[in-house]
Amino acid sequence: MILSILMKRKQELLDGMINSRNDLLTWMLAIREENQEPITRDVLIDNFIGIAIASHDTTLILLSLMMWKIARDPKIVAKICEEQMEIFLRKRRSGEEKLTWTDLQSMKYTWRVAQELMRIIPLVFGNFREAAKDLYFGGYFIPKGWKVSHGTQMNENIFENPKVFDPSRFENPSKPIFPYVYVPFGGGPHMCSGNDFARVEILTIIHHMITKFEWSQGDSR
Predict the structure, then answer these.
(1) Rounded to two decimals, what is the model's pTM?
(2) For residues 61 and 202, what is the distance between their CA atoms, to the nearest angstrom?
(3) Where along this sequence does the record place binding of heme (predicted)?
């Protein structure tokens, strides 16, 4: 299906039927390599699938987990409601309608719940790294060139009581959270560029769902 859409859009671009490059697919088709040759079909498809999964599936999964947690945990929903209603009432008094970045930054507890969910239930299976040399790690021999994925989010040496759902661990961690041990969006120069955008999406949707609907635990059957 992706290939057929790709070929159709490419032909439309060649025929001059598309003047705007505002959509992602048309923009990718218009890109040229350093030698002025167009990007190959396989590279286009791989990148399009990667962007689609990274921008859609991960946000959707986290939003689903947030709603699941809110519906099942009265203490969590009470704290989120308190935080969101405070923002809602403040904006209503001031006559403002749209959320601002300052509003989103003040949703600290809501985002800590999201962080803890991403720790316990990662949105993706992991980030692989290639061993630059032969090494021993944790009693295992890892040859140079092997691709390695090592989970850290449930490591009790990093997170105290890792099986306990505790959003406060991101507020005042009893142990310092070192770089690259909590990486729901990756890390380093290849960190997900949509990190902040995903945060904006999640917090905005949760704000409206909390302030416009009443939440209660339904029948589990």
Answers:
(1) 0.75
(2) 10
(3) 192
